[in-house]
Amino acid sequence: AISVVHCNEAGVSRVFTGDAETPRLDLSQAGLFRNELRLVLSGEEYQMTDKSIPLEDVQFTEITWSEFKSEYPGGMVYKWPAWD
Fold it and tell me: Is the distance from CB of 51 to CB of 75 less than 8 angstroms?
């Protein structure tokens, strides 16, 4: 499983993966704390930039949405609902 996390406030992105037997990471967000995203992994809270998060960081390249759609026309992305 892979989870992609981005914090607009801090301008930081991270990509995490777990072990091969884990079909889904128990990872969610808990709002902002000290101007960056607060993550919850299996009930434990971490700052997004905390290097002690017990998941493996995956190398990645940030691209624009139009670049992604062009390069991966069949790619699937979960689009969070837009709340007004």
Answer: no
Residue with tokens 């981005």: 6
Residues 70, 77 contacting (CB under 8 angstroms): no
Q: Enumerate residues 6+ apart whose C-beta is below 8 A from 5.
A: 13, 14, 15, 16, 27, 29, 37, 39, 48
Nearest Cα to 1, choosing from 13, 18, 15? 18
Give the residue extent of every domain in the chain.
2-71
Q: What is the pLDDT of residues 35-83, one digit of tens each?
A: 999 999 999 999 999 999 999 999 999 998 899 889 999 887 766 666 6
Bridge partners of residue 20, in order along the sequence: none
Coil, strand or helix: which one is 75?
Answer: coil
Give CA–CA dist 19/26, Å, rounded: 12
Q: In whole angstroms, what separates CA 10 from the centre of its chain?
A: 13
